[in-house]
Amino acid sequence: MHITPLSGSRAEIGEAHGRAHGERITHSLAVYDRLFQDFVGMDWARARRVAERFLPMIERGFPAILEEMDGIARGAGLDFADILTLNCRSEISLTQANGGCSAFALARDHTQWLAQNWDWRSDQLHNVVALEISGDDAPTLFSIGEAGMVAKIGMNEHGLGVCLNAIRSRTCGAGLPIHVALRKILECRDLDDAMAVARHDRVCSPAHFLIAQGDGRALGLEVQPGEPGVLLPENGLVTHTNHLYAGDGAQRVADFPRADSRSRLARLDALLGALKDDALPHQGPIGERELFALLADHEGAPLSLCRHFNPDQPAEERMETLFSVVMDLTQRRLTLRHGKPCESDESLTVQFGDEPGVDSGQTRQGDEQ
């Protein structure tokens, strides 16, 4: 996989995105057409009508991103309504569909790490894209996500990164759609600005945003239309899977996680707790290789951190790990493995320059250092 550079105005960024990944975007529409029918009994035409209700919310909270969506549509030869619907896919489908992502923030040896597995339907594997977005009016950022969508998981030039855990819930209210909110966070200068997106703009439907910055700060936000639940680091760790547990703002939201969400969280806590245990013999510095090995864990398979094809699940609910990402936010470096982290050492690494504020990324493909 290669990173796609996008630059200029919002419209220029969108058009370049659409031209570069038009075929993948069209395939994404077909994937979500099937998913909407599988989970909520809705065809694409009806989904487009449902997506219209989110347009005024985006116009109020992040109007500039609509120019980019319009550009994506032009570049890909599609309707704006298709791109809007794609970017509202969580709000349309997550009443029933629930991914299996596992995410963590880890502070160790003066380094702030942020990492996760992104688990979703395997028919979306080849529609994953890596984007470097250098806008005229926003920080440069790297985003790993789905073709045609304005953002998902990534980091920006200020060393601010965000990960995502899906939450299955019937709650949907006023605020920014999840993926639009993620992009707004990736354009923030620091953790305080990112927090304001969750507390001021709010997010239409529940999700967990794990946010950290290279200065060693991290927090989990269980976002929703109301006040978010907040998870602060314990011994330098924040972990999350696919259920709500912050216990404050989001406690009034009903979620419907699969049973394996709690077992994956317990396994993540155990593995990361061992890395933080000062009573253990010194294990040497932690790097990308060690954290990808953790994400490749198969304890409790097939419902493990690294998820594979599971024939015992209904076909429409089979979730597999489609990519893994490890971010060293202190060094402003992101490393991606496309596919399951256990199956290949091949990776894509992108890094901002040595001086803070440098707008151009550096890329490398191959094994981690």
From TrEMBL:
Residues 109-341 form the Peptidase C45 hydrolase domain. This is C45 family peptidase. Residues 360-369 have a biased composition (Polar residues). Residues 341-369 are annotated as: Disordered. Coiled coil: none annotated. InterPro entries: C45_proenzyme-like, Peptidase_C45, Peptidase_C45_hydrolase. It holds the Pfam family AAT. NCBIfam families: C45_proenzyme.
